[in-house]
């Protein structure tokens, strides 16, 4: 259960950085990725970016709570995370830090 949450966040983190960098994805705030809005993904960015990650915000955790975790799992092994400035270890810790009650097994 914990491993899934961690993997899920890795996916979310990849999407956050990709959206913010405009190098990988061009998405408007009206669109969603795996049932998470772009603004919801962006709310998590500071929690997965070294060297001084923040505690995940309420907005970040709320966004993740509505996510299609199975969908996000499909991104878990992406090579984009480090290239986009996301620390995979921090990303994998986010679902636990948000205390999400549900999990999918990736």
Automatic annotation (TrEMBL):
The keyword Disulfide bond does not apply. Keywords: Signal. Gene3D superfamilies: Plant lipid-transfer and hydrophobic proteins (1.10.110.10). Residues 34-106 form the Bifunctional inhibitor/plant lipid transfer protein/seed storage helical domain. This is Bifunctional inhibitor/plant lipid transfer protein/seed storage helical domain-containing protein. One of its GO terms (biological process) is systemic acquired resistance. GO terms for molecular function: fatty acid binding. Pfam families: LTP_2. InterPro entries: Bifun_inhib/LTP/seed_sf, Bifunc_inhib/LTP/seed_store, DIR1-like, NsLTP-like. CDD domains: nsLTP_like (cd04660). Residues 1-30 form the signal peptide. It comes from Castanea mollissima (Chinese chestnut).
């Amino acid at each position: 259960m914990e491993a899934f949450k961690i993997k899920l966040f890795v996916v979310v983190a990849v999407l956050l950085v990709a959206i913010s960098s405009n190098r990988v994805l061009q998405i408007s705030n009206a669109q969603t990725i795996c049932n998470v809005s772009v603004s919801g993904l962006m709310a998590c960015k500071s929690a997965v970016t070294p060297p001084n990650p923040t505690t995940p915000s309420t907005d970040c955790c709320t966004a993740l709570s509505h996510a299609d975790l199975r969908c996000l799992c499909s991104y878990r092994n992406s090579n984009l995370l480090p290239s986009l400035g996301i620390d995979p270890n921090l990303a994998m810790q986010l679902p636990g830090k948000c205390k999400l009650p549900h999990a999918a097994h990736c």
